[in-house]
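Design job #97: recover the sequence.
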């Protein structure tokens, strides 16, 4: 049901129960930023700066998307400077460090045979390690997980340079009581429930997991999380769900498709720690065959900016329990159904209760009869601050979202054509790329392991594999 709380499914050891007995005692809860309007203003400032730099340079590398321009146009080869990505976050998740400063871990094995004792070289073995770790992939791979992937703090999962699928009929990604995680450039799809099994969460701890919901990416009391350039579709529950006091989150440049309940932000109407939740949803494409929850919000502050909504079946943005929703510079294209033109939905709440909620639309483009119902008279001050720098016009949505999804490949997990100008799998699809096998580079000059110049790519990976060997011998705690 739309108003039902997200299921709580974690079994804790006694010390963790004692630690989490009150919201104030847990370091991840109620740790929101005191001035969300300043984060919104900083977001718009970065977009404006990137746009100005693009105009001054006459185009070239610059796209006007401040995230991509930051790491793509830095004057260095991203393959040799992967960790620059950690400096490019914007919005409420801008402080997510991921594995910055840590060694490179190259995933070479797509298997997940033993969730308690994962083999070195697997994604599970990488994500459970202590300390910062920057995780990359040696080749294209589909990783069908037998149990939830429990990601430890200070990890980056960086799919650039390979075509990486997680899920595909297996379990998917869980961030539980962790911080500083970046998930970049991977496909997450066809995720199913798992659990009633032991799963390792660190080199020194494994524990029993009850049945999971089947989310694509699940955040449970997590903070400083950034999901960027992912493609998400067809999961058993949500594509991205954040509950139980999770905060400081950005979801950007991603492509969502083929799903019912897309994104849940907030555990239940009466869960007070979610009042501190702060989330930025930016530069995403909400694509074909989506029904609702893009997102569905509770209590916190949600900046929904410069996204492209190409139809929905029920509604686009929903909420309950008085969330603050700041919608700026989005394009909302309503479906043909005359009864589903409204962008917004107050879930299971009478108008007399929601008319004071702070929901604003500014600079949004309404197409095909779409309409946004604002509310919150008497709450102007917070929006005066939030709007102190004008939001980018929705006319720029095409430009800002053209690369949404996994870079260099089909944007919705293989169910649509590759982007124009992208040479995917070494086959030219236009945009000046050479014909035939081409050079295997995607739209941002990325090498793909399933085509193109693999020898060149391998030459970059060999030093990384040597570093991995040293890292495995010296740094990793035995399981």
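Job complete. Output follows.
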């Amino acid at each position: 049901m739309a108003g039902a709380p997200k299921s709580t499914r974690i079994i804790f050891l006694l010390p963790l129960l004692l630690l989490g007995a009150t919201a104030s005692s847990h370091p991840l809860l109620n740790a929101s930023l005191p001035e969300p309007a300043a984060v919104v203003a900083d977001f718009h400032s970065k977009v404006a700066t990137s746009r100005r730099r693009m105009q001054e340079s006459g185009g070239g590398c610059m796209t006007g998307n401040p995230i991509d321009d930051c790491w793509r146009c830095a004057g260095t080869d991203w393959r040799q400077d992967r960790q620059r990505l950690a400096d490019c976050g914007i919005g409420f998740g801008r402080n997510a460090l991921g594995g910055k400063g840590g060694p490179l871990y190259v995933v070479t094995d797509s298997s997940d045979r033993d969730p308690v004792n994962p083999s070195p070289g697997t994604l599970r073995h990488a994500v459970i390690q202590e300390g910062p770790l920057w995780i990359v992939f040696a080749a294209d791979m589909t990783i069908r997980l037998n149990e939830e992937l429990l990601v430890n703090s200070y990890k980056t999962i960086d799919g650039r340079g390979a075509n990486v699928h997680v899920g595909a009929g297996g379990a998917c990604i869980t961030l539980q009581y962790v911080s500083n995680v970046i998930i970049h450039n991977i496909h997450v799809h066809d995720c199913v429930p798992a659990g009633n099994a032991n799963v390792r969460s660190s080199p020194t701890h494994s524990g029993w997991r009850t049945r999971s919901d089947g989310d694509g990416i699940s955040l449970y009391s997590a903070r400083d999380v950034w999901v960027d350039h992912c493609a998400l579709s067809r999961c058993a529950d949500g594509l991205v769900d954040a509950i139980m006091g999770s905060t400081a989150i950005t979801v950007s440049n991603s492509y969502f498709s083929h799903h019912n309940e897309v994104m849940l932000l907030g555990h239940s109407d009466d869960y007070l720690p979610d009042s501190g939740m702060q989330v930025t949803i930016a530069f995403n494409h909400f694509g074909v065959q989506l029904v609702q929850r893009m997102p569905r919000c509770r209590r916190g502050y949600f900046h929904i900016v410069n996204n492209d909504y190409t139809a929905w079946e029920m509604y686009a943005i929903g909420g309950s329990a008085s969330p603050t929703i700041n919608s700026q510079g989005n394009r909302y294209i309503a479906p043909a159904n005359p009864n589903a033109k409204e962008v917004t939905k107050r879930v299971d709440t009478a108008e007399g209760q929601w008319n004071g909620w702070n929901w604003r639309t500014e600079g949004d483009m309404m197409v095909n009869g779409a309409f946004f119902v604002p509310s919150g008279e008497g709450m102007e001050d917070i929006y005066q601050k939030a709007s102190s720098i004008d939001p980018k016009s929705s006319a720029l949505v095409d430009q800002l979202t053209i690369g949404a999804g996994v870079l260099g490949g089909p944007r919705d997990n293989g169910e649509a054509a590759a982007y124009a100008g992208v040479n995917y799998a070494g086959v030219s699809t236009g945009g000046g790329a050479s014909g035939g096998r081409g050079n295997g580079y995607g739209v941002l000059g990325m090498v793909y392991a399933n085509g193109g110049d693999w020898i060149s790519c391998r030459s970059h990976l060999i030093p990384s594999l040597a570093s991995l060997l040293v890292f495995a011998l010296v740094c990793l705690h035995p399981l």
